[in-house]
Amino acid sequence: MKCIKIDKNEWAGGLEAAASTYRLFGPVKEDEFYEFKALEEGRAPDAAAMAVRNTRTSPRSVVYPQAEVLFEYTTDERDPDAHVMKEPEREEKPRAAIGIRPCDAYSFVLVRNNFESPEYQDVYWLRNYEETTFIGQACHDPCSTCFCTTAGCGPFHEEGLDVLLADAGDHYAAKVLTDKGETFMKAAGWGDEIDFPDEEWEGWKTAAGEKIVSEVPTDRLADIDTLALHDADFWDDVAFSCINCGTCTYLCPTCWCFDIQDENKGREGIRYRCWDSCMFPIFTLHGSGHNPRDAKTQRVRQRFMHKLKYFVDRYEAGIQCVGCGRCVQHCPVNIDIRKVCNLMNSFGETESCSVA
Amino acid sequence: MKNPYYPYPVRIDDIVVETEDKNLKTFKFSFLNPEDEEKFAYRPGQFAELSVTGLGEIPIGIASSPTEKGFVKFTVNKVGKVTTHLHRMKVGDIMGIRGPLGNWYPWENLKGKNVVIIGGGFAFTTLRSSIIYMLENREDFGDIHVIYGARSPGMLLYRDELAEWEKRDDINMHITVDAADDPDWKYNVGFVPTITEEKAPEADENTYAIVCGPPIMIKFTQPVLDNRGYGHDHIIMSLENRMKCGIGMCSHCNVGPVFVCKDGPVFTLDQLNRLPKEY
């Protein structure tokens, strides 16, 4: 297998060279945890940053910022274009996500289903996505909460990546997967091609996969009746401890719900979108005061049904979850998507067995 | 790539106060750029996002018919932040319209069929669009019945047009009010379900009902239609839910796996029976 060898001594220098062509994003230390953010000039992720398995929030903000301006406008009546929306100017430099984990990179492949339909294309998301090069880093040592291997990807998963790096001690072995990846490697000045032993790579991959001990069963989800699952009797139990804080949805790489708001400063204004969460009652509140999901159970059910059933029904792309485990780690009341997925996947199983 | 969030700039050309409580106004808009009118080609039953800078957008059904050229009309109930501001705007003001959005009443399937329109309150907007459209293409449809009710005569929308349609012999109008203190009131008095029971034609394979109104009206009208033998695939309804994007992306309006904004707002009752009641 052809790989590019990146000596770790050449890591920072390569990224500095690439930074003249790309806006770089990567894991950055923020107090006691790491966030996936724009890298300041000359600040390549160091060994500690590259060892981070899950940044606190997912890297979705690289493509889909927490707040993003859609339009600018003026309300100044003397301006002939008063009240007419204008798209803001865009930064020309493309982006590169450095050290993104395979599950997080794969999340964009899933989320693309939402932002690109035959009828409509979300120009903001798609332009950001298309211009981003994903330089991934394989996970040799997954977390105990990881369940990527049963959520459609894995610690060495390549779909959604342009380059996959594997840590080989004093160097990275870089598997270049796309033309975009090749262009990035050139910009970084990394071109030391080596013949990497396939069996060593596969050995790493297998060893990493074996360290993942938790699983989500998904084999029955597609065939279960949607309405019956919606009306299942376990939702009150699942939702019992939920405090509707929304942490799960904000940390998640595959959550995409957003709100659109206007904000004026004097006579100038912006229309922007920002992340929203189906955990909040106002998310579905009608102008009349009626709220179709006014109870907590309904909102918790919505989150799991959306990820594990509606998405499955709609796109035939598996579940809307990559198994990163952030929601499992950070839920303040220990609600665990793996358990809920298990409940959902086994819905009706016992009855049908007893009938049989 | 076309930006689906871009509202076409429009000017308010006319504002009509529709109801005696002054809570409903009809706004007539013309496009600042005439070519945008073509891009806004719509069908009755669709909606659009009305956009006011600094306040935001609201999804509102299109009340004009595509057969009416040179303008688009929306009837807006004063409810929240955007609509309250809209009610204070004046002729000549500039704002935006984004759309058309959503699906429409199934005109392809309704060709050659009898259509019974059942509407209540201010949900009559896209039904007005539909009636104008059907009358303009009268030969494409069989019998047309319209059952439309409001709380009182002064709460009926489009009263001049209702009176004109009453005079025609190619449309059967059944206007009703919950109660009337006007001694000259010459139409029906009674709730929509009661009038439906009395006036709606018998169901058959060629007759479709389009039902649009407040939840309470729908709740009591549906058993009437069931009794009269209307199949659930012959009952067409339009849903509302809180929306932001209008194009199936922000996920505010989902009902099970479908989005009201993109896959709807029009569904048959048969389709709704298979979805959670989250609307």
Give your account of this protein's structure.
The complex is a heterodimer of chains A (356) and B (279). Chain A is α/β, with parallel strands linked by helices and 356 residues long. Chain A folds into 2 domains: 2-61 and 91-211, no CATH class; 221-355, no CATH class. Helices cover 32% and strands 20% of the residues of chain A. Chain A contains 13 helices and 11 strands. Chain A has an 8-stranded mixed sheet with strand order 3-2-5-6-7-8-1-9. Chain A has a 3-stranded antiparallel sheet with strand order 4-11-10, with no helix packed on it. In chain A, a hairpin with a 2-residue loop joins strand 10 and strand 11 (268-275). In chain A, helix 1 crosses helix 5. Chain A is globular. The radius of gyration of chain B is 18 Å and the shape is globular. Chain B starts with 7 loop residues before the first strand and ends in a 6-residue tail after the last helix. In chain B, helix 5 (159-167) links the parallel strand 8 (144-150) and strand 9. In chain B, strands 10-9-8-7-11-12-15 form a 7-stranded mixed sheet, with helices on both faces. With 279 residues, chain B is α/β, with parallel strands linked by helices. Chain B has 2 domains: 8-100, Translation factors (Elongation Factor Tu (Ef-tu), domain 3, Beta Barrel); 107-238, Rossmann fold. The interface between A and B is large, with 56 and 47 residues.
